[in-house]
């Protein structure tokens, strides 16, 4: 069996990191506290935005509160559906107007031909 050899302090390699002074430790702790505060503030803002988005989406009270990913997916699908419906309405309106204008031009041409026919007789 292999034997474990103990090293004397003189033969130990130098420490990987130099020892930290209390001042550098306090500076590091202060930076960590500030970073934690920023992250907490960011998460509060994100949660507030999610709540605002949930209040706008048409959901039934029976469903309960949607998770963040459910809220984002539902909002995406809702916006897509509304845009699709709006696009269909725009196309329908365009086709109706186009048909009406084409029909009016057709009637105008018929009226012109009728007047020409009457005048020639």
From TrEMBL:
SMART domains: HLH. PROSITE patterns: BHLH. Residues 1-22 are annotated as: Disordered. GO terms for molecular function: DNA-binding transcription factor activity, RNA polymerase II-specific; E-box binding; protein dimerization activity. InterPro entries: bHLH_dom, bHLH_transcription_factors, HLH_DNA-bd_sf. GO terms for cellular component: nucleus. Coiled coil: none annotated. Keywords: Membrane, Transcription, Transcription regulation, Transmembrane, Transmembrane helix. The chain crosses the membrane at residues 91-115. GO terms for biological process: axon development; positive regulation of transcription by RNA polymerase II; sensory organ development. Residues 30-82 form the BHLH domain. This is BHLH domain-containing protein. It comes from Denticeps clupeoides (denticle herring). The gene is NEUROG3.
